Each structure stands twice: as structure tokens, then as C-alpha cells.
Amino acid sequence: MYQGTFDPISNRADWFGTLQLVNADTGDIITDLTGVDVTLVVRKDRCGPYLTATLDNAKFDDLGGGVLQWHFTASDMGNICPDTYQIGITVKRDGIVEQEVIGVLPIIDGIVGR
Description:
This protein is mainly beta. Helices cover 4% and strands 55% of the residues.
């Protein structure tokens, strides 16, 4: 599990990030996403979520090789006030939920008008 602070992102631009799925028991990269649920949530002090990405809502793209890329558009980001948020990512596979990420996400004002 990754725990830490993400680099700041702008609330006036698209936000891309990646996650590679690895079997914690074997170290093998998970390339077959059948039956896999991935959820990313950005929230503020238990309020929200302000942003949610799942495989079902098309905010994640499968880049192959076990790599997933999330994408929130500038329009998605424009609804977020500049502040420090919490981010979490879970992966559910074979009925087991694993916490992959818990962190802090600074969102800064991109200044440029919407």
C-alpha cells in the first residue's frame, strides 16, 4: 500500500494518474481484469466524494500490462475548490478488498478562467 502525499494538481486542467495492479502474494502483474473492481475516491474530511473513478464509470482506462490510468477532465476538476484533500484507492478481486493507496492530495487554483 502506498501512503503519502501526492504532487499538487490544478483545478483548471485534466488530471491523469496511473496504477499498476500487482498480486501481493506472488508479485505477478494482474493483466486479466475480469471480476476486478477498482475505486478511487477524492474527498475532504469525510465529506464528498468530490471525485470518483471506477472501471464502470469510464474514469479508468486499461493501458495493458496491468496498468490502469485515471482521467478527470478539466471540467471535473473545475468543480473542486483549492484545498488539501484525502485520496484512497481500493481493489476488489476474488471477493477480497485491498487498500492500495491512502494519501493526501493538494489541489491548487489554476488561476486561468474556466
